[in-house]
Amino acid sequence: FNVNVISMHQNTVQATINIYNRISKEMLPTPEKTHYTFNLRDISKVIQGMLQVTTKECNTPEDFLKLWVHESSRVFHDRLINTDTDWWYSAVEDTVKDTFNMPIPATSSPQSPPKGSPTQAPPSGLSGILYGAFADKKNQNYKEITDRRMLHDMLKDYQTNYNTSEMKDMDLTFFDDAVAHLARICRILRQPRGNALLVGVGGSGRHSLCQLGSFICSMDCRGIV
Q1: What pTM did the predictor assign?
Q2: CB atoms inside a 10 Å sphere around CB 223
Q3: Residue 188 — very low, low, confident or very high, per pLDDT cuts 50/70/90?
């Protein structure tokens, strides 16, 4: 890695500890949020997620900072309910300013999605940072995904190939939330002992996204009846 990136290792560990301490104190479990339980393993999960990237895809302090924001969000934010999303990104901004002493990372300017796509405008700010290893078949390194047009086309290709190989008739609409959830599933499946509990109402796409995510990661998908 670039020497400027290497020099961020201590701040990265400290920032992860700080955000863990804050969320553990301020986001306590309640009858509505019984799953709000955090432990020291979460710190290691953030670092484990960051280790998926290569030097080619993360060669500047700004890139490394965006990677930390993304991996921290996947470990901590993805457990929060929608009403706590603003709290999370406010806490991340405070941590970035206090620990890294750097400006808030700006998301790259993605190309516009294809005409008629349900993904009309990528999310802005920290919530718009998206990483994955499936958006480019020629380069399957874990990296930031900025080209939403290419991403949408790639997901349609994956769905077509899935339907052909599995003799299914899956017809998903890749709106922003669906793309983000699929990226989360693929990220988890890439990691050793990766596991997740998907929570949602019936018909929200949990089963279909799991099937497609497994196909993208070249894994078998099995269910317990």
Answers
A1: 0.86
A2: 7
A3: very high
What is residue 120's predicted lDDT score, i.e. its pLDDT? Answer: 41
3-state secondary structure the chain: CCHHHHCCHHHHHHHHHHHHHHHHHHCCCCCCCCCCCCCCHHHHHHHHHHCCECHHHCCCHHHHHHHHHHHHHHHCHHHCCHHHHHHHHHHHHHHHHHHHCCCCCCCCCCCCCCCCCCCCCCCCHHHHCCEECCCCCCCCCEEECCCHHHHHHHHHHHHHHHHHHHCCCCCCCCCHHHHHHHHHHHHHHHCCCCCCCCCCCCCCCHHHHHHHHHHHCCCCCCCCC
Residue 115 is predicted with a pLDDT of: 46
